[in-house]
Design goal:
Distance between the termini: 81 Å
CATH topology: Ribosomal Protein S5, domain 2
Shape: elongated
Number of strands: 5
Strand order of the largest sheet: 1-2-5-3-4
């Protein structure tokens, strides 16, 4: 039995983590066992997921099998995009400058700021009363 070769990458965004496997194929993207069109009906999220493949002109070359957990749909789509970019670099090292130039290999470290004691939210203070 021949072992199928794949390229893997882990992507992160906010609290979402995506484990991506790229296999040579026709361009199908399966996320948590479902086609990505069903899981992400919003066009913006689908474009975020496809951005790495679009920039490197490898849309029909790979099938992607993704496991994603944590966060919301926006964070998950960003994590998938980051994971696909990392997997593409493992598949072909010559794609690294193009992906870096478009900011797809950089981990977006922005996350929700924690609530501070004595405040209503991270920075919002209670209303000041003089009398």
């Amino acid at each position: 039995m021949e072992k199928s070769t794949y390229f893997h990458g882990t992507g992160r965004r906010k609290t979402a983590v995506a484990q991506v496997r790229l296999l040579p194929g026709n361009g199908a993207i399966i996320i948590n066992g479902m086609p990505y069109e069903e899981l992400y009906p919003c066009l913006e999220h689908r474009q975020t997921i496809m951005r790495s493949l679009l920039v490197t002109d490898s849309i029909g070359k790979y099938n992607a099998v993704v496991k994603v957990a944590g966060g919301g749909v926006s964070g998950q789509s960003g994590a998938i995009s980051h994971g696909v970019a990392r997997a593409l670099v493992r598949a072909d090292e010559s794609l690294k400058p193009i992906l870096r130039q478009n900011g797809l290999l950089t981990r977006d470290s922005r996350a929700k700021e924690r609530k501070k004691a004595g405040l209503k939210r991270a920075r919002k203070a209670p209303q000041y009363t003089k009398r």
